[in-house]
Design brief:
The complex is a heterodimer. The termini of chain A are close together. Helix content of chain A is 27%, strand content 28%. Chain A is of the alpha/beta class. Chain B is an all-alpha fold. Chain B has a domain of 93 residues: Fumarate Reductase Iron-sulfur Protein, Chain B, domain 2, CATH 1.10.1060. In chain B, α1 packs antiparallel against α6. Classes of the chains: A alpha/beta, B mainly alpha. β17 of chain A pairs parallel with β1 of chain B, so a sheet runs across the interface.
Chain lengths: 335, 136
């Protein structure tokens, strides 16, 4: 049986590793962080069913315990090269690893909100990202810049997505439903706090997403305003004033809020960018390119190099796990 | 003041810090289905009155939601309560009830004890009838 190296121990890498190991393949999995699944363990609850993120992380981590899987944590793969028909990887400490096959599961990185300076992230304390908000929800400590309960929280969609100025024309796909989920969580913890969501379109594409949107209106009184916030500025009392057009009214609006939550999109991670470039399989926006989105979505232009998860494009966790299974099936059918 | 040929313009901006939500809260209590509105504009597109006048029901209820009440009461008089909007609404908002209740709230009617004028007339007729019956 052939050996395989998997780069990235997120949901994609782990799910694929578990299936391949169960079918007798010798699997090495590489993760640059100290622990696997850090992109899941920093979440509180998952849409659309408010499943506990830690439960999922636990279930996935259990799958890594197979004796056929060798884990290399705190190991950042910095280069890859052909080695006859197989592959050789090099990590940041100069060590080399060889295998017959290679699976890229290097994932995404959240958009860096500093790049949208006009929205005031890291300038005004009341401006936070969706990741900060997720942590506040998890720790049950949703507080404004002066450590008090917020009276009003505003979520802004499409930060770093669908934005020419950020260089990202694509939709990150899951921020819409994440904002709705977080607004519901906010209202569950602080029922008296006003929650507003500013959107350009609401893309409730998945199963139960539209229902969640409706639930947020009906049961939690979350308010929706169509319009993109153009700028945020600080007020003397540590709050944030925002300006936008209410495009349904055709009028400009201003609003003072305790917290402005920037729903940051997904970008290709540094690992995805570097390794895809090195392998010559770069797609759009730094993501890795599969051969065909319909039939060969786990194959790359390089023989023996497979792709799965968010190294290809933004995906939900459910999508990612399904894609990892698909990658494993593809690999087993060819190996 | 018009000596100089100009005047000070009023700001057009919607200022959310000055909006009071009591009227909207009342409306949502009377017409809970309005919570489902997604602002699609199906109501305006189907509107019989909107086809011939500048009556735009989507814009009117959005303005109500945003606390922009100026001129709404007058504008709402254009509605004939035909109910076509109610048939097309994809979220099942009870638009006829919405319009009637916006009218009531804007007119300052005590919405708890308010009854439509037609019912008042029926009451009067019944009262008359009762009077007659007594005399007989």
């Amino acid at each position: 049986m052939k050996s395989i190296s998997i780069i990235g121990a997120g949901p994609a890498g782990i799910e694929a590793a578990a299936i391949l190991a169960a079918h007798g393949m010798s699997v090495s999995i590489f993760e640059k962080s100290e622990s696997p699944l850090s992109n899941i363990t920093d979440k509180a609850f998952l849409f659309p069913n408010f499943a506990d993120a830690n439960d999922l992380a636990h279930k996935l981590a259990e799958k890594l315990k197979s004796p056929s899987i060798t884990q290399h944590l705190s190991t950042e793969i910095v280069s890859l090269s052909r080695n006859g028909k197989g592959w050789t990887l090099k990590d940041n400490k100069g060590q080399s690893y060889s295998s017959d096959l290679l699976l890229l599961a290097t994932g995404y990185t959240p958009f860096d909100a500093h790049r949208k300076e006009e929205l005031g992230y890291d300038i005004y304390k009341g401006v936070v990202t969706s990741l900060d908000m997720e942590r506040m929800i998890r720790d049950k400590a949703i507080l404004n810049s002066i450590g008090e309960k917020p009276r009003r929280v505003v979520f802004l969609q499409c930060v770093g997505s669908r934005d020419e100025k950020s260089g990202n024309h694509y939709c990150s796909k899951l921020c819409c439903v994440t904002a709705v989920k977080q607004a519901i969580e906010l209202k569950k913890q602080l029922p008296d706090t006003e929650a507003y969501i500013f959107y350009m379109d609401l893309r409730m594409w998945g199963q139960h997403f539209e229902e969640l949107y409706r639930e947020s209106q009906q049961d939690y009184g979350v308010r929706f305003v169509r319009g993109r916030i153009s700028e945020a500025s600080g007020t003397f009392d540590g709050r944030v004033q925002i300006k936008a057009e209410d495009t349904l009214m055709g009028l400009p609006l201003k609003m003072t809020t305790d917290l402005l939550v920037l729903m940051v999109g997904m970008e290709a991670s540094v690992g995805t960018r570097c390794l895809a470039k090195e392998a010559g399989i770069c797609g759009e926006y730094g993501f890795a390119q599969s051969i065909d989105p319909h039939m060969d979505d786990n194959l790359s232009a390089q023989e023996g190099l497979f792709l799965c998860g968010t190294c290809k494009r933004p995906m939900t966790i459910a999508d990612t796990i399904a894609d990892a299974r698909s990658a494993a099936t593809t690999i087993l059918s060819l190996a | 003041m018009n000596k100089f040929g100009f005047s000070i313009s009023q700001g057009r901006q919607i200022n959310y810090d000055e909006i009071k939500s009591d009227k909207l809260d009342k409306l949502l209590e009377l017409v809970p289905s309005y919570k489902w509105c997604i602002g699609c504009g199906g109501c305006t597109a189907s509107c019989s009155a909107g086809g011939f006048t500048d009556f735009n029901i989507r814009r009117i209820h959005t303005a109500f939601q945003r606390g922009q009440y100026d001129g709404l009461e007058e504008k709402l008089k254009s509605c004939m309560l035909c109910g076509k909007c109610l048939l097309v609404c994809p979220r099942g908002v009870n638009l006829r009830s919405l319009i009637i209740n916006m009218r009531r709230i804007l007119a300052g009617v005590d919405v708890v004890t308010w009854r439509p004028p037609r019912e008042d007339r029926i009451d009067k007729q019944l009262a008359k009838q009762n009077e007659k019956n007594k005399r007989i």
